[in-house]
C-alpha cells in the first residue's frame, strides 16, 4: 500500500498473524466497509480457536 492512499478509500486490510503457541499462521482481514475482522484459518483442532482469538486481539 502506498503512503499516499487515504484511509477512507481502503476497503480491506490483509494481515498475516503468527500463532506462536501452535506454530501456525492465520489470515486476518479487516473490513472497513463491514466494520469487522474476518479470520481465515486452515487448522481445525479442539482448543485452537481460543489461542487464535488471543493472538488476534493482541
From TrEMBL:
It comes from the Eukaryota. PROSITE patterns: ULP_PROTEASE. One of its GO terms (molecular function) is cysteine-type peptidase activity. One of its GO terms (biological process) is proteolysis. Residues 1-58 form the Ubiquitin-like protease family profile domain. Pfam families: Peptidase_C48. Keywords: Hydrolase, Protease. InterPro entries: Papain-like_cys_pep_sf, Peptidase_C48_C. PANTHER family: CYSTEINE PROTEINASES SUPERFAMILY PROTEIN-RELATED-RELATED, UBIQUITIN-LIKE PROTEASE FAMILY PROFILE DOMAIN-CONTAINING PROTEIN. Belongs to the peptidase C48 family. This is Ubiquitin-like protease family profile domain-containing protein. It comes from Capsicum annuum (Capsicum pepper).
Amino acid at each position: 500500500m502506498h503512503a499516499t492512499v487515504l484511509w477512507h478509500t481502503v476497503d480491506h486490510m490483509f494481515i498475516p498473524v503468527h500463532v506462536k503457541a501452535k506454530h501456525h499462521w492465520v489470515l486476518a482481514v479487516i473490513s472497513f466497509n463491514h466494520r469487522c475482522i474476518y479470520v481465515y484459518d486452515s487448522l481445525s483442532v479442539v482448543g485452537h480457536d481460543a489461542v487464535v482469538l488471543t493472538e488476534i486481539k493482541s
